[in-house]
Amino acid sequence: MAAYVRDTDFFTRRTAVLAAIIGLHVFIAWALATGLARKAIEVLAPPIQTDIVQEEKNKAEPPPPPPPELRKEVVEVPPPDINIAMPEVGPQTNAITARVEQPKAPAPAPKAAVAGTAIGLGKGFPNVDDYYPDASRRLGEEGLTMVDICVGPDGKLTEPPKVGKSSGHERLDQAAVKVASVGSGRFKPATEEGKPVTKCTQLPIRFKLHN
User: Fold this and answer.
1) Is 147 exposed, middle or buried (0-12, 13-18, 19+ CB in 10 A)?
2) Facing residues of 125 across strands?
3) What is the pLDDT of residues 136-186, one digit of tens each?
4) 42-68: burial string, b at 16+ Cβ within 10 Å, e else
5) Which of 162, 164, 159, 147 shows the shortest CA–CA distance to 184?
6) Higher pLDDT, 162 or 96
7) How large a percentage of the chain has pLDDT more than 90?
8) Rounded to whole angstroms, how far apart are CA atoms 150 and 201?
9) How far apart are CA 8 and CA 3, in angstroms?
10) Beta bridge partners of 172
11) 3-state secondary structure of 108
12) φ, ψ for residue 177, nearest 5 deg
């Protein structure tokens, strides 16, 4: 009878402990489901605040580097390549080489120079006897007068004629100058290379009596 009472008490305690464990597990499950456990943890153990202290490291900055030195750079220009073409020297020989020279073209023949002509008397030149002074005829004066004249390309006098050499009689000299003046425009001009030119000369005028 006493043994049975002990076994009953043992089972009763065991059942109570088992019931307490099961109840504890049920409570924990309910607490987890409702968030009660998290609130209890926050009440019992306040949140740990961590402050991250950044340690400032004061590093001494190095001084700035000095400015670079300006240096003149010497540009070296290479010398130009000079290629001297040397003539090719063939093998020396003692043979005599003949060189044929081309005949030179004959020089052009000079143009034949056209001979110049002197001043002449043209058609219609006055007759000297028509200007023979009457006083000289009566006195028998005769003579040759040289009259200086200048004739242009048109056959006319370019300046008044004058006595170049006297005949010895003034009347005859004046008559000779008059003959030359009247003959202006009736002279044949002098020519050079076939072209008429202005030229000066002496015109002989002779006065002679006819028997």
Assistant:
1) buried
2) none
3) 999 999 999 999 999 999 999 999 999 999 999 999 999 999 999 999 999
4) eeeeeeeeeeeeeeeeeeeeeeeeeee
5) 159
6) 162
7) 43
8) 6
9) 9
10) none
11) coil
12) -65, -40
